[in-house]
Automatic annotation (TrEMBL):
Zn(2+) binds at H634, C636, E658, C719. This is 5-methyltetrahydropteroyltriglutamate--homocysteine methyltransferase. Catalyzes the transfer of a methyl group from 5-methyltetrahydrofolate to homocysteine resulting in methionine formation. Keywords: Amino-acid biosynthesis, Metal-binding, Methionine biosynthesis, Methyltransferase, Repeat, Transferase, Zinc.
Length: 747
C-alpha cells in the first residue's frame, strides 16, 4: 500500500444522502429503502476510490448522521430515557440525533458539538450509571462485509476509545474506571470480530491526541492500548489529525501499533517529532494532502518534506478525512484557468497517486504542478492593502464605553424587561427556496422577485407584531446562506456550484472561496433591512455575518495570513454597518456563529495565535457606530464557557447564544466571571422539530434568572429558524412570547 485516505465525503456527489435521509424523515422512504439507497452510494464511493488508484480504502466512514453517534450506538451507549421507549433501532438512532416527539414518547436530542476545529458537528455520547457497554451494533462489520462482497478489501474506521472518552458526557454517579475497562473489552471484541471477517487493517481515529494531553490522560491512553493491542490479530492504524501529537508521540511510538497516521498540514511539529526517530517496524501514514482546504497540493514542497523525513515504510494519505471538503470540481463552472488550482475530494485522490508516482521517479506530474505554482494566482487590491496597513489601535475601540452606552440605550429604546427577539431567519420554505432559485436562473424578473421577498417580510413582520415580539427581524428570505450571501457582494470571492460540505446530519454548507483581496463592492443588506424597518413602528434588527465567521466558513487563501484576510473582511462589514445605521437601522446583529471554529486545539495557543486578532477584528466592525446604535452578536454550535472573557471583549451590547442543548451550563460561568454584555441564552433548541411547551420555557427562563440579573436577560431561541418548518416555528415562538408574558405578570 502506497496511498490511503482517512475517510471520504459520505453525502454523495450531489448530496444524494441528504435528500434520501430527509425523505425518510418525512416518511416518504422506509428505513429499508434508505438502507438500500445508502448501500448503492457506498458502493459507488468505494469503486470511485479504487478506480483512482488509491489503495487504502476506508469503510464505516459512512454515516446516516454522525460517526461518533454510530460508535456510541455500536457500543450500546444509549441514555436510559431512550431505551425505555419502544422505538425501533433506527428510530432510536435518529432520536439521539434529532429528538423524538410522537406517539411513543417525547425526548430531546442529545447535545451536538463542534468536531475539533472543523465545521462538522458530532452528537455527544453520554455515559450513565446504567450504561452497559457491549458491542450491540453491527454497522462496522456489515459495511466491511458489504465492501468485501464487492471485491474491495477495506480498512474499517472507528472513533477510538480515548477520543470517545474525551468527547463524552459523564453522568455524575458514573465510575470512569469501569467505563474505561468496559470500553477496552468492547473494542477488543470489535478487533476480534473484524479479524474473523478477514480484515487486515483497522483504523482507530484518535484526534484527541493532538490537543494538550496531560500525563494522567496519557497514562489512560497507554493502559487502554496496551490491553487492546495485546495479541490483536489485525494491523491497527492509530490515526491522528487536526494537529501534531507532541505530548503523546513518545508514548505512541512505543505501543505495538502497525501504523501511525500523522498530520503534516496542521501538525506544525510533525516533522520535528519524526526526526526524533520513528520505529522501523511501523508504517508511517503521512497526511500530506490537505483534507480541509481546496487548493492543489504543491508537489515539490511535499516531496521536499518527505525527502527530509526519509521513511521507508511510508503510505501517503490526507491530513484528515475528506469529509471536510466538497466532492469534486468536475461539475463546477469555473474556467480551466481557475479550476486547475482546486482539488476537492475526488481530485485529492489523484494527487495522492501522483505523489506516490513522483516519489517512485515519475516527472510529468511534478512538472505540470510546478508550473501551476510558478505564477501568482491571487487578485490584489492595493487600496485594501493600504487600509489594513493604516489601521491604528483606536480603530478597534468603540466609544463611549459599555456602561455609558447602556444608559443611553435604555433611554433610546425603552424595551420591556426580558425583551424578546429571534436570531434572524424564518423558515426557508420550498416556496422561498424555489423563488430564489428561479430568480437566480433569470426565470422571474427582479421586480417579481422583490415583490415576493417584500411580501414575505410583510407577512412575518405582521405576525411578529401579533405575537408580541419586542425586536423584530426581516427573516432573511433573500439569503441562501449566511456566508455565501455576503461573499457574493464582496470582491475577492469565488463560489462553487456544488461545493457542499457536511455540517451536521443532513445539513451542509457551501463555503465560498477567498480568491483575492476582499472589499465591499456595494451595499449588501441595506435594501431589505431598511425596507423592513420602514414597515413597522417596532425596532427591526439588521442582520449581518461577522468577519471571523465569514473567514472561518470560507476556504481561505494560503498565501496571506488568516488575520489579514479577516481584517479585510472586517473593513468591508464595517462599511455595511455604518450604511445600515445611516439608513435608520438602530439595532444591528453581527453574527459570529463560527467564532470558535479556528480556535487552536491547544489552549496554550488560544490567545497568542487566534483570539489576539479575531476579537479585535470583530470590534473593528462596530467601533465607529453611535452610542445609541445597539450592537448584538450571536454565537452557536459550540461551548463558550472557556472563552468568556474574550467574548466580553467583543464589546457588543447584547449577545444571544445557543444554550438549551447544553442545559444552560454556561450561566454559572457568566456569573462567576462578571460577564458585562447583556445575554440571550437560547430558551429552546431549534435543531429539532420538537415544540417546547409554555411551562417548559418558563422553567428555562427561571433557571436563567437564577443566574443572570433580570435587567441583563434577553429571551430568544437558540439560533435562526431557517431550517425549521412554519408550524413548529410559529407554535414555538408563540409559546416563547406567552411564557415571557406570564413571567412579566408574575414578577
Ligand atoms: N442570523 C442567522 C440566522 O438566523 C444566524 C445563523 C447561525 O447562527 N447559524 O439564520
Ligand atoms: Zn446560531
Amino acid at each position: 500500500m502506497k496511498t490511503a485516505i482517512i475517510g471520504f465525503p459520505r453525502i454523495g456527489e450531489n448530496r444524494e444522502l441528504k435528500f434520501a435521509t430527509e425523505k425518510y424523515f418525512r416518511n416518504e422512504l422506509t428505513i429499508d429503502e434508505l438502507e438500500d439507497f445508502s448501500k448503492e452510494l457506498r458502493k459507488k464511493h468505494w469503486q470511485l476510490i479504487k478506480n483512482s488508484g488509491v489503495e487504502g480504502i476506508p469503510s464505516n466512514d459512512f454515516s446516516f448522521y454522525d460517526t461518533t453517534l454510530d460508535t456510541a450506538c455500536l457500543l450500546n451507549v444509549i441514555p436510559k430515557e431512550l431505551t425505555e421507549l419502544s422505538l425501533s433501532e433506527s428510530e432510536k438512532y435518529f432520536a439521539l440525533a434529532r429528538g423524538y416527539q410522537g406517539e411513543k414518547g417525547d425526548i430531546k436530542a442529545r447535545p451536538m458539538k463542534k468536531w475539533f476545529n472543523t465545521n462538522y458537528h458530532y452528537i455527544v455520547p453520554k455515559f450513565e450509571k446504567d450504561t452497559t457497554i457491549s458491542v450491540t451494533g453491527d454497522k462496522i462489520f456489515k459495511e466491511y462485509q458489504e465492501a468485501k462482497n464487492l471485491g474491495i478489501d477495506t480498512r474499517p474506521v472507528i472513533v477510538g476509545p480515548f477520543t470517545l472518552l474525551q468527547l463524552s458526557e459523564f453522568a455524575p454517579e458514573v465510575d470512569r474506571g469501569n467505563i474505561v475497562a468496559e470500553l477496552t473489552t468492547a473494542y477488543k471484541e470489535i478487533i476480534q470480530r473484524l479479524s474473523d471477517l478477514g480484515a487486515e487493517w483497522l483504523q482507530i481515529d484518535e484526534p484527541s491526541l493532538v490537543k494538550d494531553v496531560t500525563a494522567a490522560e496519557l497514562q489512560e491512553f497507554q493502559a487502554i492500548y496496551q490491553e487492546l493491542l495485546a495479541d490483536a490479530k489485525i494491523k491497527v492504524l492509530l490515526q491522528t489529525y487536526f494537529g501534531d501529537i507532541r505530548d503523546a508521540y513518545e508514548t505512541v511510538i512505543k505501543l505495538p501499533f502497525a501504523g501511525i497516521g500523522l498530520d503534516f498540514i496542521e501538525g506544525r511539529k510533525t516533522v520535528e517529532l519524526l526526526k526524533q526517530g520513528f520505529p522501523q517496524d511501523k508504517v508511517l501514514f503521512a497526511g500530506v494532502v490537505n483534507g480541509k482546504n481546496i487548493w492543489r497540493n504543491n508537489y515539490q514542497q511535499t516531496v521536499d518534506v518527505l525527502t527530509q523525513i526519509n521513511q521507508e515504510n511510508l503510505v501517503l494519505t490526507t491530513s484528515c478525512s475528506l469529509l471536510h471538503v466538497p466532492f469534486t470540481t468536475e461539475n463546477e463552472d469555473f474556467s480551466n484557468e481557475i479550476k486547475q488550482h482546486f482539488a476537492f475530494a475526488k481530485e485529492k485522490l489523484t494527487e495522492l497517486v501522483d505523489l506516490a508516482d513522483i516519489l517512485a521517479g515519475a516527472e510529468e506530474a511534478l512538472k505540470t504542478n510546478q508550473k501551476l505554482f510558478a505564477d501568482n494566482r491571487f487578485i490584489e487590491n492595493k487600496v485594501v492593502q493600504e487600509k489594513i496597513k493604516a489601521l491604528a489601535a483606536e480603530d478597534y475601540v468603540r466609544k463611549p464605553d459599555f456602561e455609558e452606552r447602556k444608559e443611553l440605550q435604555k433611554d433610546a429604546f425603552d424595551f420591556p424587561i426580558l425583551p424578546t427577539t429571534t436570531i434572524g431567519s424564518f423558515p426557508q420554505t420550498r416556496e422561498v427556496k424555489l423563488t430564489r432559485a428561479k430568480y437566480k436562473r433569470h426565470e422571474i424578473s427582479e421586480e417579481v422577485y422583490d415583490q415576493f421577498i417584500a411580501q414575505q417580510i410583510n407577512e412575518w413582520l405582521k405576525w411578529q407584531e401579533e405575537i408580541g415580539l419586542d425586536v423584530l427581524v426581516h427573516g432573511e428570505f433573500e439569503r441562501n446562506d449566511m456566508v455565501e450571501y455576503f461573499g457574493q457582494n464582496l470582491s475577492g470571492y469565488l463560489f462553487s456550484k456544488n461545493g457542499w460540505v457536511q455540517s451536521y446530519g443532513t445539513r451542509g454548507v457551501k463555503p465560498p472561496i477567498i480568491w483575492g483581496d476582499v472589499a465591499r463592492e456595494k451595499p449588501i443588506t441595506v435594501k431589505w433591512s431598511s425596507y423592513a424597518q420602514n414597515q413597522t413602528e417596532k425596532i427591526v434588527k439588521g442582520m449581518l455575518t461577522g468577519p471571523v465567521t465569514i473567514l472561518n466558513w470560507s476556504f481561505p487563501r494560503e498565501d496571506i495570513s488568516l488575520k489579514d484576510s479577516t481584517l479585510q473582511i472586517a473593513l468591508a462589514i464595517q462599511e455595511e454597518v455604518l450604511d445600515l445605521e445611516k439608513n435608520g437601522v438602530r439595532v444591528i446583529q453581527i453574527d459570529e456563529a463560527a467564532l470558535r471554529e479556528k480556535l487552536p486545539l491547544r489552549k496554550t495557543d488560544w490567545y497568542s495565535e487566534y483570539l489576539d486578532w479575531s476579537i479585535p477584528a470583530f470590534r473593528l466592525v462596530h467601533s465607529k457606530v453611535q452610542a445609541t446604535t445597539q450592537i448584538h452578536t450571536h454565537m452557536c454550535y459550540s461551548e463558550f464557557t472557556d472563552i468568556i472573557p474574550a467574548i466580553d471583549q467583543m464589546d457588543a451590547d447584547v449577545i444571544s447564544f445557543e444554550a438549551s442543548r447544553s442545559n444552560l451550563a454556561i450561566l454559572d460561568e457568566l456569573k462567576r466571571q462578571h460577564f458585562k454584555t447583556a445575554v440571550g441564552p437560547g430558551v429552546y433548541d431549534i435543531h429539532s422539530p420538537r415544540i417546547p411547551a409554555v411551562d417548559e420555557i418558563k422553567q428555562t427562563i427561571g433557571k436563567i434568572l437564577a443566574k443572570v440579573p433580570l435587567e441583563k436577560v434577553w429571551i430568544n431561541p437558540d439560533c435562526g429558524l431557517k431550517t425549521r418548518g412554519i408550524p413548529e416555528t410559529t407554535a414555538s415562538l408563540t409559546n416563547m412570547t406567552e411564557a415571557v408574558k406570564q413571567i412579566r405578570e408574575e414578577l
